[in-house]
Design brief:
This is NYN domain-containing protein. By secondary structure, the chain is α/β, with parallel strands linked by helices. Helices cover about 35% and strands about 20% of the residues. The mean pLDDT is about 85.
Length: about 180
Amino acid sequence: MTGDVNEGKISVLWDLTDFPVPEGRGIREIVGSVLARKGYTGEISIKAYGETTNPYPPEEGIPFVLNSDKYWRLNRILVDICLWSLDSPAPYEGPSTLMVVAKNIEERSEFVAVIQNLKASGYNTIFVVPDGYSPYRVPIPKVNLAWYWESLLEGGEPIPDSELQGILLRVKQHETNVF
């Protein structure tokens, strides 16, 4: 892989219904501050999804996809992830990072498989999980970094690697015991 992953382009896909941005704050400010603290310097592109009208004026440059159905929004995010992977440099050509801010993702879904395949292919993947996250209720794909929601909002640190690995192990054990 050429280049430092922290210098590559960063794409953020954010479901505003799942994780509403507090009044007086902006997605770009929240994401920019936490990623800068982790050493990311690449250009950040953002796409938002939600069930109400676009809260961002056009000059902010944040495309917004409106739909009230959660299943539809997740499928649209999945399509956008696939399109992003086609438009992003292959990991051996340069670094690319995908950050997904959404919840209520079903285990054993294409969504989880696509994120895990991107990571396995060398893309940098970041995920945000709800506070009080339970690996038995909501699967988390294998990712490079994950934040708890409040920690992300406060500009805090991602989930420590040892805790994240424990969560991923519990998810894997739970998936094994489902059938």
